[in-house]
Each structure stands twice: as structure tokens, then as C-alpha cells.
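Two proteins were folded this term; both appear here.
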Amino acid sequence: MDKSSKIVLAITGASGSIYAQRIINYLEKYSEQFNDFDIVFSKNAQDVWLHELESNPKKEISQKIYTPNDFYAPFASGSAKYDAMIICPASMGSIGRISNGISNDLISRAADVMLKERKKLIIVARETPYNLIHLRNMTQLTEAGAIILPATPSFYSKPKNIIELVDTVVLRALALLGININGYKWGE
């Protein structure tokens, strides 16, 4: 990742707020590796965060949080030159809208911008099991250039607690961005 890079983190109303929380923690800790990152929550994401983490993201997060209807956010346009976007956790509703070009909120618009500008779009899908519609939407996004990274933890690093288990997904997403974090690597 280039030091001038700009990143967007979108958080939807899918279960898995802890993944987004850990991504924010790492982006803050390793902020010298890129220029800036912005955050947008979907309409339901803050409620899910409050329920799952029992904290208010507006009080916990120091970064500016954009609202889902703020189409004046810089990353709503390709001219702002954002380099990458992570949607984590990504609901199947958000994935469906993005895969079908329905830009009805800031998250789907920013994802559309990433795809049209051929920038990195990492989608941390959070659902189980998948139905055929989910699979087709994720296939369509993959064909359009997105990276689908299911929120599927790995166990070969022998995580000792829930945070280490969550980090097996989070560190994989950040590695795809090009953020250099000294996490577990198979065979090392």
C-alpha cells in the first residue's frame, strides 16, 4: 500500500461488528502505511454494533463517520481518487444491490465507484448458509473485479481466544489491501 493511498471502510447491518471494530483498530495502529481512511455505516449497522459490542460506535471511533445518505462524501466520486474499499461485515442485501448496480446509498455508490474505477473492492461476506441468489451475486461481483472474502475464520494458527480468531479474517482482509501487519503466515 502506498503512503498516499486512501481507503474506505463500509460497515453494513450484517452480524459481525467485531470484524469492523478490529479493522478500525488496525487501520489506526498502522496509519503510517497509507494517507487516510474514511468510514460509512449503513442505516442498520450502528444498531447491530450497539447490540453485538454493547458500545456506541459514534463515541468509540475517532474517525469521521459518514451517514449512508451523504452523497457529498468524497468517496462517492471517482475524481476523489480513493484506492480501496472494504465492506465489512457485508450483508447479502448490500451485496445484492452492489452486484446489480443499485446505488441507493453511499455504500453501494462507493462500491460502484471502486468497480468502475478498477480499484480494489474487498467484500467480507457475512451470512450462512448461502442460497443460490447469494452465490450468483458474489459471482457477479467477482467477475466485475471485487474480492469476496467470507468471514470464515481459520484455525491453523491455533487462535487462543475470540479476538485471535476474528483476526484470522481481519488480517487477511488487511493483507489484501497491502497493509503490512506481522500476523501469522502459513509455513513461517
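Next, the second protein.
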Amino acid sequence: MTDRDLLRQRLVAGLAALDCDLATDAVERLLDYLALLARWNATYNLSAVRDPLEMVTRHLLDSLAVAPFVSGETLADLGTGPGLPGIPLAIAAPRRRVTLVDSNGKKTRFLRAAVRELKLDNVQVVEGRVENVEGVYDCVTARAFASLSDMLGWGGHLLAPGGVWLALKGRVAQDELDTVKPPFAVRSVQPLAVPGLEAERCVVIIAGSGAPAGELGTRARP
């Protein structure tokens, strides 16, 4: 069995545990992304995770655990780093337009290479500070790069009316949730069970202005 076979085996088992049904070509594209990340990581230190098997769990499955909560036709992934969770989500739902935002030039160079080599036609890369990014998006994801109040203060203008903000956290305290103020509102905090990962994970689901009551916090296929 090759190294890629082992990675595929772990990924497929994890996807099954997440009840995430992806086509074979999407699985292979995720593995291609992982191989590219591992290769760049050796030189550019894009991730503290070095073991490819651990990358399957901590990067791919950790990202895809939030997929059922993503909705809409457009998504912005803020502080995306090496493309997490944005690239796995883009591969899982190729009809959704995904914008990856990061201010680190080293990371955006990798992102552009990944978009080009993986032929991710639904993905664009924006290098810059979140507060300077333009546009509006149906869904915004942010993987614990700041506190909730800072995230919304810097990037709240990107959330479309009726949109949903998904803040990926390890753990979130009530006092942090209480910092979310109108026009935003915390709708729910959903635990995420990432296969093979013992660490605590959750997604804080935040509604923007004009979000219909009762439509957020539900699990819908991307």
C-alpha cells in the first residue's frame, strides 16, 4: 500500500463518519491539495502540522466538518492561511464561488499555486487585510483567527443581508458570545465531531442583519 493509499483510506473513513458523500474525483483532488501543501510546507512553513496523515484529520476533515452548515452561492474564507477551510469546502461544492482572504504574501502565493494546479475554477484569492476587502457574501467562514467581536468588526461588512457567519472555534466562552452585538446575533453554537480528533471543536453560527429567523443553525448539504 502506497502512502497515498493510506491517506485516501483515512480520508474516506473520515468522510463516511461525517456523512459527507463526495465524488471520487473530489477525494482525489483533496489528496492532491494535501500533497501540494505538504510539499510547500517543507520550505515555507505554512502549517505546524507536518505529518500527512495528521493533515488529513486536522486540515481536511476538520474543514469539512463544517460543510453541512455552509449555505448560499458565495463564500468568503477570512484569514484562510493555506486555504483552510476554504479549499476543502470549494472542492466539496464546486458550484459555490469561494474567495480566500489572507494578508500574508507567502500564504497567498501558495493559494494561487493551489488554485492553478488543482484547477479550482470556483476559487479566487485576495491578498489583503480583511477590513479592506470589498464585496458581499452569502456565507463567511473564519477559523479562529481572532475573537468574535474582532472578526465581525473587521469583516462584518462582507456578510450579505440574510447571510450566515461561521466562526470555527475550539471552545467558546459565554462572555465572548456576549460581545456579539447588533446588527449581528449568535443563533447557535454547534459542536463539531471531527473523526480522529480528540480536541474540542465547535462552530458559532452568527446571523447578519435581515437573516430570517429559524433558518440558521440547520444542517444542509452544500
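Residues 211-222 have pLDDT under 50 and may be disordered. Residues 21 and 202 are 21 Å apart (CA to CA). These notes refer to the second protein only.
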